[in-house]
Amino acid sequence: MLITGWLWCLAGGVIAGLLAGMLGIGGGLVIVPLLIYLLPVLGVPPELVVQMAVATSLATIVMTTLSAARSHYRHGQISWFWVRRLIPGLMAGAVFGAWLATQLKPEWLQRIFSIVLLVLSIRMLIPQRTGEPITGVSKRLMALISAMVGSLSALVGIGGGSLTVPLLQRLRVPIRQAIAVSSVGSLSIGVSAVLAFIVLGQRMESNEGLLGYVHGPAWLGISIASMLCAPLGAALTQRIPVKRLQQGFAAFLVLVSLELFIG
Asked: What is the pTM of this model?
């Protein structure tokens, strides 16, 4: 059974890596549900499963988005104008979100994740605005919005791309550029939140995750596969229709969110 669990971790890493590169979502939308089902198989106590799934998901996102961001940088798609306006708020919010995740009961955290998943899946199906990018938004407003995005992303372990890509598209940033900036944002959220989860996890009497709330072996298996596949996903954004991929993925997420909410 343990071998099956590790194989599922590798498979989840492949999917997460491809999605991180193609959609800039960090892979957490796949990894968190996967880990909620797999961590009990790997011996994690039920009361730690959801928090550890969130923390481990964010740890894998660090590796995945690092690889994806490097690929987008080589393709010249990263807009540093938007990076400078988003990153500080994303990192500060991520630390708060990680702390909040450790304070909530696991069943409530799982339901919050399922609701966020459902909203984001529906959001993927809504047509986006086009036209010249809107660059006149105040820095304070962008800092507030990005802090909220960082908090929610760390709370449910999704890395932030699922929120920052729609935000940037709302500001009429071209889709490929939005995905590239989102990869950098997801990396920032992941680093900040994981450090917080490691520190917060030191207070647990039984540190099953080896690295605070991060389950080390699951993190390693998923990360290796996702890092190898993220550059391929980034390259595929130049060749395939992203909209069709978003639609199919959104339908899948609706089913997963309903299952998690009921379960």
From this structure: 0.79
